[in-house]
Amino acid sequence: MRKGNKSCLMKVGRLLGWCAVLLCMSMSVGAQNVATVKARIDARKIAIGDQVRLFIELKSDTTKERINWAAIPDTFNTLEVVEKGKIDTTLVGSNVTYKQRLLLTGFDSGLFQVPAFQFAVMPVSGNPYVVQTDSFPLLVQTVAVDTTKAFRPIKGIMEVEASWTDYIEYIIGGIVVALLAGVLVWYVLKRKKEKPPVPEGPKETIQEYSLRLLNELDEKQLWQKQKVKEYYIELTDIVRDYIEARFDTAAMELTTDELLHKAKIHKELRRYYDLLSVILTTADLAKFAKAEPLPEEHMDAMEKSVKLIVDSKPVIVPTSIEKEL
Asked: I want to staple 322 with a disulfide (CB 3.0 to 4.6 A). Which of 215, 252, 309, 318 is the partner?
């Protein structure tokens, strides 16, 4: 009996030791997960066509990790996303809070599920992981119909007698417009003179042209209007077109990896490899990986594109004759 009790105690001790090791391992892994996300919905049942709001809130530490926003489809489980609010950012020290509001509706009756949305987290050190929101049931109800009342018959089309006097206002208006148009044409033909040719101003350099296109793209505010993919398509086209003209090397038809490889070995372009890598990598995430970069990344891609063009402006070396003059 004593030997049996001693053996049981040793087994229990080994079991407790393994449990402690597993607990420490789980705590160390869990300690790496800094980001947290939560969601709430302001109603659990609506009538057909009514709308319900879903609020998403994600918290993270900018010094420890990077967040890829969840790809939210326009429809799921017969529910429709009427509006995707912009992602609001609040920064306190290195702690950042992202908030987004979704407006949902349904046009079929039944009990549907608002799915959990997943957010990829890229730590500065450690393995990537995923955080996700809760899912919510949403009951969509039909409009109540009073079946005690009889259906009313559909009335037929009623004919109304018409005369030309009913259109007198349109007739007078047409005559006035025709007279004004005739007078305007006569005046333009009479006053028309051959204008002297306007001298052409100085042509834009490739840097001025590309910077103007970037400024026009920024004024469109595409990513602010949730047109992230269109924003990066235009941005990369401007950068690639500039590279072709400035460095006399093909860029438009190359993949990102091919272009970065060419930039790394190019005599002049390799100086701007880091800027080009950030621009193209961020654009590929938005265009092909269905990830939604953060507002800071949109602005950073634009700033790096401007810097690439400004810093790579060719230096004009004066000739010996110009130096003498």
From this structure: 318
